[in-house]
Amino acid sequence: MDLGLKDRVAVVTGAGRGLGLAIATALADEGATVVGTARTRDGLDAVEAIADHTIGVEFDARDPDGATALLDTALDRAGRVDILVNNAGIAPTGTLETQGLVALRDVFEVNLLTPVALALAALPAFRAAGGGRIVNIASTAALRAQRTVAAYSASKAALLRVTEALAVELAPDGVRVNALALGAFATGMQGDLLTDPEQYARRTRRITVQRMGDPAEVGSFVAYLVSPHGDFLTGTTYVLDGGESARL
Hints:
7-stranded parallel sheet, alpha/beta
């Protein structure tokens, strides 16, 4: 199926590795020009190695004030912006008591305020293009609090509510806004778990399909959501977790 993305430009944050790299790759494979952000030279090189029509731009999601500059750079380098994928995020471990308010503010700044700032900064470009697509990458931790990542869970839960609000507010401008609540995917964030058969078996035992997700599966789902085929889809959180959250 041709997803109709050949004339589209996508901004993908945190595109230098893991899920962000998979999303950027899927969009580029469909012909979209991808402006992918990263904080390191290796990350930027990874983005630019995807295809001739991928552009690496340095951006730190800890700085919401840099959102307008990022969108200006994307417009300058690619001419337009049609798609925004808010993928960059942080997930420090610890209880609310041990992390404290400073850490809580940091998590909310990266996982909530920066996605909102980028969405607002992208609005002029979306309006100029006659519409746009926003996909916010969240987590199943947003659906139910998890003990060791309370701040992360709260920030992602807030991102889901913002997704719904933006979907309603921006619908008249032809902007569709959705979120993904992701379960366990086989990325570097899993650490030793991917190379330890016992740890992997224990973790995947809770997943209905008995495996972790492939990052490419997220990429293909995002590509469909942001395509013209996804025009009827907005204000929704899609759970991609291999059925883990459905288990009794």
